[in-house]
Amino acid sequence: MRLGKGKVLILDNWKDYRRVFLTLATPGSLWLLVFFLIPMAFLFVLSFSSKAVINGETSTTAYDYFNTVGNYYASAGSSYLVLLWRAVWTSAVATLVCLLLAYPLALAVCFAAPRWRPLLLLLLILPFWINLLIRTYALYSIFRTTGVVNQAVGLIGLGPYEMLNNTSAVIMGLVYVYLPFMVLPLYSTIEKLDRSFLEASLDLGASQMRTFWSVTWPLTLPGVITGIILVYIPCLGTFLTSDILGGPNNWTIGNAIQNQFLEANNWPFGAALSFILMYATFIALVLRAVVARRSKGVDA
Amino acid sequence: MSAPLKPGQSPLDYAKRPWIIVLFGLVLLFLYAPIASLIVFSFNVDKSGVWHGFTFMNYVKAWNNDAIFYALSNSLTIAVLSTIVSTILGAMTALTLWRFRFPFKNMYEGFVALPIVVPEICMGISLAMFFSYTGMMAGVRDWIWPFNLINIIFAHIAFCFPFVAVVVRARLQGFNRQLEEASKDLGATETQTFMNVLVPFMMPSLVAGALLAFTLSLDDFVITLFSSGPGSVTFPVKIYGMVKRGVDMQINAASTVLIVVTFAATLIAMKLQSPSKAGH
Amino acid sequence: MTEPIVSIRNVSRRYPGGVTAVDNVSIDIAQNEFFALLGPSGCGKTTLLRMISGLDTPTEGQIFIGGQDMALTPPNLRPTNMVFQSYAVFPHMTVRDNVSYGLRVTGVEATETARRTTEALEMVKLGHLADRKPDQMSGGQRQRVALARALVKRPKVLLLDEPLSALDAKLRDDMRLELTRLQETVGITFIIVTHDQDEALSMASRIAVMEKGAVQQIATPAELYEQPRNKFVADFIGKVNLIDVSVLTQKGKMVTCNTKGLGKVDVSTDKACGDKATIAIRPEKLKISTAEPKGPALIKTRATIRDVAYYGDTSHIVADASDGLHLEINVQNNSRTGGAGVERGQKVWVHFNPVDALLLTE
Fold this sequence. Notes:
Distance between the termini of chain A: 12 Å
Number of helices of chain C: 8
Helix content of chain A: 55-70%
Distance between the termini of chain C: 28 Å
Shape of chain C: elongated
Number of strands of chain A: 3
Radius of gyration of chain A: 24 Å
Mean pLDDT of chain C: 90
Largest sheet of chain A: 2 strands, antiparallel
Low-confidence stretches of chain C: none
Structural class of chain A: mainly alpha
Oligomer: heterotrimer
Strand order of the largest sheet of chain A: 2-3
Low-confidence stretches of chain A: 1-8
Order of helices and strands of chain C: EEEHEEEHHHEHEHEEHHEEEEEEEEEE
Shape of chain A: globular
Radius of gyration of chain C: 25 Å
Mean pLDDT of chain A: 85
Largest interface: A-B, 93 and 88 residues
Strand content of chain A: 5-15%
């Protein structure tokens, strides 16, 4: 934890203020316990369970708990691995595109005249405040075969093209939705970067390109990592974008989970799929922590 | 390789590089064209991608469409109620983490941040199971409005308040505790100090946190889809159902209204926030 | 003067919106000079330095470095190197990597790079810290890294932006000597930007005093102090009593003028002057005596001591003469007893030799 000069943060021992501490800490903790931890534990147990067989019939409501790892075996079945793999790589591509777009944009905002900076930043992140579903629907309606884009292409005698229901459409949708999540951490890191580092590099004879790779990039890496995590994790669990823009052929693991719960009604299997997604998420977080530790000493 | 500079140009004027300006323009076009087209076509007489004439009919139809109307009022009710509770819970959690040291604090911090990182769909189905196992899903179905939304509200609070806690805590980190001491030194009680010194200092982050919670709640589709019973449809869930059946200009009309509401709320919150921002 | 190493010709830097940071400046700087750009903050001195380095470019004018117009050459292609005010030592590289950076990025061969890096580190006495990261170093050490990093490139000109401002007083004195020593050993032209007149006077061989984007005077330290060209320079360099006068007659070099508090006085000047002028006289050139001083040419007046401030080696005295004229007088405390030898409220004579006074016409 870094504090400003002259500020000393002295934490009180909770035992000295037991009543204040408990009053402040209990409601939130209880809430998370009941509406987060217990449900998650349920899900975890369920992922190792199977539907109970009563009188030779498979029950739709009762389960035999903790009797199998078969759900995880089943998840390893090729069709589901494909969905997981698709989530992993489409998210990776979408994250990369976000990074490639957001980095120069964040750089431009930070190096623009100070009075323009807030407006430019606002323009880039304002769409974040619009409902995710509305934004996805907006994309869907302009790129559909009878949408504005195809109508415009039609004016010069081309098309109509099928622009949706493919992987590129899903990636485009993910970029559209999560770009602000990449811009924000990059902006705040680049903004804090002392310009004289870049100036010193140029002054010492490095080209703009060399300066970028030797100085700007390593010094802004913490922001890059934060941005990657902020974009990659929600992409991994995406459900709406792949559903609306990709269609059934481009489903990812998120859609499979939803399907198990709302249609196929195989909850234990859905639970196992959820936990696989969760493990993938945690692996991403651990990777981030490892990279962050390695780049320690680099000022964020 | 390095081209000469123009008079008055600094080598770090990246914002003035033509390719960056073009990129910026294209990205803004990409971000805003779909939304602009959504708004424009909400006034179109039919649902094709071609302009066939101006009309308010879509708005009238959406307004008179009970399903859309209830979905929208459900969404706003849920958002308001969960924002209030989330802001309070979030502020309390932030104060706990900021003020005290206690055993397993790091673990507790990780626990509070967990709902932020766990995939929405996992949280959604775990809550769906929880509500149906405990009978809460069926139990509240016939309750009087807005109590039939209580499951959704509980769920929204669970994923909103950790965000509020993060925002408020970041602000508290910059608080100078000598101000607290000064207040007590001047004779204020613990409670007076809290109300007169700490709460005003936290205010911008409370507003920002509340706005974030409101947006997250209004925005949420996945968790709501799973934790809502058949009778309690929210706006995103309703739109999802309509989108699955194809493009309908009523969606455009209702969405436009929601966009206007969201932007207005954002602007108001920014206005509310700015005077107190200047005060420190 | 032989061919100047840096020649700034009619350089201006105007910003959109009407601000002019540097206004039609021309300076020639010779090989091996220790040149200082001196002025208050916002006078354009840093902008000028940045234009020499290429980190900024003039909107008008030319900048010749080594005989070639480089006004619009990017910084990486200029034979100049800079020591930044914040040092800008790369935090993600070791000291050695910092120092070798400029050689590595320009493709200097590896063994040559290693040799010159070690040499540069030895020169600033940091050989033993080569593998440290900058966050483990003090401000003074970081500055040496910045110096070595710039000097290892063997630039034609070394630019230093307020190099001593972030150091504490003791370190600043050491570094001042060190910079002078370095400049003599490496034989490179140094251009330093500073707002601190002591720094400029003690280190530089020549100084350009700037204000509001324009050069007020370019001269050696002694000339600046004793022959300031105008009121701004006289006032900015050291302490001075500025006394407004109205000119009565000018006969050749002798000017007779009327002065509040001093009456009619005669001073000499090289320049023609109008009705109004200013007499500048340094506080240490004023004398105090209790008895009326004798001597035909002396300018003298009665005054009352208002304040005496004791500084150890000197005492600074403020005295009120007639007609609202205040005079500042510095007195050497030459004996252990008595200090300045006067006390508050005392009536004294203040006098000076007219050759010590300067008539300023601008």
